[in-house]
Design brief:
mainly alpha
Length: about 170
């Protein structure tokens, strides 16, 4: 046997009162706590953020993610870092389709490069090596100067001995 509940009972009484109150005072019931002018201003600000700031942010993030393989290749001193950079740029042009290949290539080691060139790491070309420090150069130069002065003194002594030997013979 099935029991059918109807709205004519004690449970439906509070519902009817709430509906009657909202029907009697429609000005009190609002969807927002803010004034309509403030809602319009917030909608304008939000729409400008969605139309201007969001695309710029998405493009910047897309670009930053797509240059990651290039940065990894430079950090690992990959010998084919320039080719990985070109693949990253092509990936930007093709909507990211080549990006996984650039990522894998940046983390891989070249197979025959070490056999051909003797190393599998290359210094990046874009930066000149830093100049040696002044305090590191001075001791080397001073020690070389002492060695050269000693060598000159030895050669002068040798020349003087040869001249004395020749002068005594003639």
């Amino acid at each position: 046997m099935r029991t059918v509940y109807s709205d004519t009972g004690f449970r439906s009484f509070p519902r009817r009162i709430i509906i009657a109150v909202f029907a009697a005072f429609p000005a009190i019931a609002r969807a927002s706590l803010l004034s309509p002018e403030l809602e319009d201003m917030m909608a304008d600000v939000l729409s400008w953020m969605v139309l201007v700031i969001a695309p710029i942010t998405v493009i910047a993030l897309f670009w930053l993610v797509h240059i990651l393989p290039e940065k990894i290749a430079e950090k690992k001193k990959h010998p084919q870092a320039k080719a990985i950079q070109v693949l990253c740029l092509l990936s930007l042009a093709f909507g990211g389709m080549l990006w996984p290949l650039a990522w894998l290539w940046a983390y891989s080691k070249p197979v025959m490069y070490k056999l051909a060139y003797g190393t599998d790491e290359v210094e990046p070309e874009h930066g000149a090596p830093p100049p040696p420090r002044a305090d590191a150069v001075k001791p080397v130069v001073a020690s070389e100067m002492r060695l050269l002065e000693q060598k000159i003194a030895e050669l002068e002594a040798q020349i003087a001995q040869e001249e004395a030997f020749r002068g005594g013979r003639s």
